[in-house]
Design goal:
Radius of gyration: 20 Å
Largest sheet: none
Helix content: over 70%
Number of domains: 1
CATH topology: Growth Hormone, Chain: A
Oligomer: single chain
CATH superfamily: MFS general substrate transporter like domains
Distance between the termini: 39 Å
Length: 415
């Protein structure tokens, strides 16, 4: 097996762990709220506290990954967020729970920018979309597979012990990653020479000027950067609902038990995983035919249109299976935007891909922050969930239009 495929496997497992640790608080929402006597709007602030911490530290974490390399940074961030996962189990009040989730979000902030830098170093350009699709599918398939398991584990062990178990798993991953991975494949002992030659010949080469530090003016003066940020904001607004409010929403609306709600909530995540794989395949397939710009633009635009259709259609369904099926279509579409988005960041960022992808993810998680608050507040203000889903549909259509101006073949200083 090619050595770079081990990186893909490690990235897949990282994404599984990343989203299982995020999703656990959503599955445990009922138990946590009862024990700590929290309202839905207070739980909205608990969910959004993670997104705020996660968003604020994206760009700094990406810069650290560019400077110190993904080996150290990824090991450190996984260990850090795992410790704050354990701290969540110690929360005794609304304030301590919000603080724990905020710091947990800060800890997770370096994961995706660090992985983006690892992809730039290890993966040939023509394989970039597929690798991004496989790794991001780990988020969805992992979370989907564990939603029912988390419901069972919380029922059997309690929510506090469940968070402690996840802490141990994360620390084990961090130790194994640091022991195996090297920032550049040429630094890894025993790396096959034919594979190394293939990677060096086909990975994207940065111009000499990119050895200079990335300035704020260059980063935020780029139209490509702003387009990436705005469209990712819209994508996360849709997806984060399924990670936070969907399990308690369908559980309460249709009077389901935790395992039933967890199973149904896993279906949109499976749809998201499939969307990642399909889009990754499309990105690389179109690129190999000589269409660099189209390879990023077309899968993303298709995904955003499908997401809008799924959100609107869900409002016309009156059974849990049909409603969740429409949401699965929406998440399939929303997740089709991830491989082109992250490939786009590596395209334009190159040796600064950690900072560029972190900045895009910062904007996306501002969308997540607003989602966690928008759903419960719009529910109170309008008396139902319809307004929330229509807002999400409009944002998806706007994002599809933004991709018409995206230029992956132009670097930060050029466009």
């Amino acid at each position: 097996m090619r050595r770079r495929y081990f990186l893909v496997g490690a990235a897949f497992l990282l994404m599984v762990l990343l989203y299982v640790d995020r999703a656990c608080i959503s599955v445990a929402k009922g138990d946590v709220a009862r024990e700590l006597q929290l309202s839905d709007t207070q739980m909205g602030w608990v969910f959004s506290a993670f997104s705020l911490g996660y968003a604020l530290f994206q760009t700094p974490a990406g810069m650290l990954a560019d400077r110190f390399g993904p080996r150290l940074v990824l090991a450190a961030v996984v260990a850090t967020w795992s410790l704050f996962t354990g701290w969540t189990a110690m929360a005794r009040s609304f304030g301590s729970l919000v603080a724990a989730r905020f710091l947990f979000g800060c800890g997770e902030a370096g994961a995706l920018p660090g992985l983006a830098r690892a992809v730039f170093n290890w993966i040939p350009l023509q394989e970039r979309g597929t690798v991004q699709g496989i790794s991001f599918s780990g988020m969805r398939f992992g979370a989907a597979a564990t939603m029912p398991l988390l419901g069972w584990m919380i029922a059997q062990c309690g929510w506090r012990l469940s968070f402690l178990i996840l802490t141990v798993i994360g620390l084990v991953w961090a130790v194994i990653w640091y022991g195996w991975f090297r920032n550049d494949p040429a630094q890894q002992r025993g790396f096959p020479q034919d594979e190394l030659a293939h990677i060096l010949a086909n990975r994207q080469q940065a111009p000499p000027g990119q050895t200079l530090p990335l300035t704020t003016r260059t980063l935020f003066g780029s139209r490509n950067m702003w387009l990436a940020m705005l469209q990712y904001f819209c994508s996360n607004f849709t997806f984060f609902f399924c990670l936070t409010w969907l399990p308690p929403y369908i559980k309460e609306k249709y009077s389901l038990d935790p395992v039933q709600a967890g199973f149904l909530a896993s279906l949109p995540l499976i749809g998201g995983g499939l969307g990642n794989l399909v889009a990754g395949w499309l990105v690389d397939g179109i690129y190999r035919r000589g269409h660099w710009v189209r390879s990023r633009r077309w899968p993303a635009m298709t995904g955003f249109v499908l997401a809008a259709c799924g959100l609107v259609a869900s409002r016309h369904m009156n059974t849990p299976a049909l409603e969740v099926s429409c949401l699965a279509l929406a998440i399939f579409g929303a997740d089709m935007t991830l491989p082109p988005s992250w490939s786009f960041c590596v395209d334009i960022g190159q040796r600064h891909s950690g900072a560029v992808s972190g900045t895009m993810n910062m904007a996306g998680n501002i969308g997540s922050f607003l989602t966690a608050l928008a759903f419960p507040y719009l529910l109170v203000w309008t008396g139902g969930p319809t307004a929330f889903f229509h807002v999400g549909a409009v944002l998806n259509l706007l994002a599809a239009g933004l991709w018409l101006w995206a230029r992956p073949d132009r670097k930060l200083a050029e466009w």
